């Protein structure tokens, strides 16, 4: 049994972490922080948790957090790195759901997040938490940077192609057309996110550049072992009028080798032992609603011409795209079964 702290318990990812961890057989959540709700019962703010917890929100107290085996930061960018060194000194592990430990390139981090990294040495020793692809590093790490939701779909979608011993796609001609529900922007007052601005509407955003783009590029370089090949990747995110869910449509050009091999078998073999990756039958259409509340991620392939492949990847952006993957990483770090606390069935309808 381990003790867990959650910093930032009032946001969507924070309460999703709590919901999942309350059902984890080897976890006790001992502290849940909130700057604005300190002293308030958690089940008063989130009635869905009535009867499941008697926790009360508290102020962030580093001394209390040091008593935990692991602390999750479900906070804005820049918070986790202010506390990581103190927690590590107390042998407390850190899992950050923001961007503080995602990008190894400090210049890119400063450019896209508008701040200087406060603990670059900790960053160097941290693990990037794409569970299926970095399991060994995560297991040995004391700090894990949870991937962004969009980058998770792109990496799961492309990894079998990029890990192959031969070049199967043209890395300079990748297009990612991605859609997310409004919960991806967090639980905060934002005029662009209110119901009347999003209902009956569908729009692209950050077309000229999104902070997940450099994360995707850096991650694909790590997967492929090749630098400088993915800078021309086109990534366009869209906002869909739904609460949860994410679907990325990835377009790639196949090489001669790639057009000749059995790509469906390649994906099935690559993810054969991955509990949370569901490779669907060829030409399927994964639906976001079939994954609501689940840590699964679904992949489907459509070969539309001899040298054109479309990869569809769907997930719940709050679970596999955030809180669920963070718990999956925790399970890896502490040697628990990887599906502990994550074996719930998706909700439908």
From TrEMBL:
Source superkingdom: Bacteria
Note the Gene3D superfamilies from the entry. Answer: Dihydrodipicolinate Reductase, domain 2, NAD(P)-binding Rossmann-like Domain
The family this protein is said to belong to: Belongs to the NAGSA dehydrogenase family. Type 1 subfamily.
Where found in the cell? Cytoplasm
Q: What class of enzyme is it?
A: oxidoreductase
Instruction: Name the species this protein comes from.
Output: Acinetobacter larvae
- Name-wise, this protein is N-acetyl-gamma-glutamyl-phosphate reductase
Q: What does this protein do?
A: Catalyzes the NADPH-dependent reduction of N-acetyl-5-glutamyl phosphate to yield N-acetyl-L-glutamate 5-semialdehyde.
* PROSITE patterns in the record: ARGC
UniProt key word Kinase: no
């Amino acid at each position: 049994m381990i003790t867990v702290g959650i910093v930032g318990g009032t946001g969507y990812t924070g309460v999703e972490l709590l919901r999942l961890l309350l059902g984890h057989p080897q976890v006790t959540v001992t502290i849940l922080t909130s700057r604005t709700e300190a002293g308030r019962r958690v089940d008063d703010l989130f009635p869905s948790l009535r009867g499941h917890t008697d926790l009360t929100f508290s102020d962030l107290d580093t001394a209390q957090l040091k008593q935990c085996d692991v602390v999750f930061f479900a906070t804005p960018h820049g918070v986790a790195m202010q506390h990581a060194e103190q927690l590590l000194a107390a042998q407390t592990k850190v899992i950050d759901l923001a961007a503080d430990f995602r990008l190894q390139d400090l210049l890119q981090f400063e450019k896209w997040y508008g701040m200087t990294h406060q603990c670059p040495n900790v960053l160097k020793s941290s693990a990037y938490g794409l569970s299926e692809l970095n399991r060994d590093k995560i297991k040995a790490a004391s700090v894990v940077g949870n991937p962004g939701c969009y980058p998770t779909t792109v990496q799961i979608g492309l990894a079998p192609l990029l890990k192959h011993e031969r070049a199967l796609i043209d890395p300079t001609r990748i297009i990612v057309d991605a859609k997310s529900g409004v919960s991806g922007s967090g639980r905060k007052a934002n005029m662009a996110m209110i119901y009347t601005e999003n209902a009956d509407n569908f729009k692209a955003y950050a077309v000229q550049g999104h902070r997940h783009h450099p994360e995707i590029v850096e991650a694909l370089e790590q997967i492929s072992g090749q630098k400088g090949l993915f800078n021309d990747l086109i990534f366009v995110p869209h906002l869909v009028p739904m609460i949860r869910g994410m679907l990325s449509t990835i377009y790639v050009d196949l090489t001669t080798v790639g057009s000749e091999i059995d790509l469906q078998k390649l994906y099935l073999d690559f993810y054969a032992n991955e509990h949370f990756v569901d490779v669907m039958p060829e030409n399927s259409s994964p639906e976001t609603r079939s994954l609501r509340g689940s840590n699964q991620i679904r992949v489907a392939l459509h070969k539309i011409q001899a040298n054109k492949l479309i990869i569809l990847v769907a997930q719940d952006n709050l679970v596999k795209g955030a809180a669920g993957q963070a718990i999956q990483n925790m399970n890896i770090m502490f040697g628990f079964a990887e599906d502990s606390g994550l074996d719930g069935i998706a909700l439908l309808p």
